[in-house]
Fold this protein.
Amino acid sequence: MDLDVHSLSNVLDTTDARLRAETGPARMWPSGFGALDEVLSGGLRGGNLILLSGAQGLGKTTMAVQMARNAARSGRQVLYFTYEHDPQNILERVLALEIGELNDPQGANLVRIRQAFEGVDHGTGGLTDRLVDVKGAIPALQKMVNYTDRFHVHRSSGNVTNMQVITNAVEQVWRQFGEAPMVVVDYLQKVKEDSSDIEAERVTVVVENLKDLSLDAKIPVLAIVAADKDGLETGKRLRAQHLRGSTALAYEADVLLMLAHKYQIIARHHLVFDAGQAERFKDWAVLSVEKNRNGRDGVDLEFRKRFDQSRYEEDGHLVVEKLVDERLYVE
């Protein structure tokens, strides 16, 4: 009997049994960004592939780490595959955002935290001893203790970490903790794939496998995706066609999120009488929900950047100004 064939009667029974056994919405992982969770009908959904893209310097890793932290803080297991940062860097980012959320204007920033972690601050003793003088660090560490055992980091390599390694790591966390983890891949084009010398074909295999992983494990898979050269240089807003490697990226994704500098895409008439507005807009990033199989798409949200604290302010909202496809300011 083909186990991949399911009658709707069987699906009804399975769904009923699952809902009776669950104490909460097990298929939903909160991103923690309220305006985004509302558009996504509750958060990051199990069985969904979510792609996050944007130009360099827009905080894609910052947002992905923050979403992972929020999911772990909510009680969920998270597995973060980092191809460009080591686990200590991820820890530094999480500590910085926790300090930032204490709302202490004198709280330490990411630079100060890294000095303590790297032992270049002229302090002595272990990490806790060195963090005593880092304002806000100890209360932040106390908050982190509540979820750090649910936030797992895999130091990935483009030479080694392929889909089999990713799947094995997911299964390891699943067996150990009794729950399949939300997966974050930072970033998708770095996943090792040797099936072809053509990047588009390799990316197609990876994105299809990540989609299968999300469906089989009933977890959200959030993957950062690089943009192609044309998307970065044309002076246009990044769109689905600018994702690097394959049209399968846009096709396979259940949710497609695109980051942009607000000051680059604001309509000119907002600046006519006050050119200084451009400076204020630089503090904000626009997160566009370009594709959403679970609800509304074509939605532009904005979140204030606090990159000195490795975070976004999470109380974002809909963009009220008119946006344009062509950038007014090209970096």
About this structure: The first strand starts at residue 28 and ends at 29.
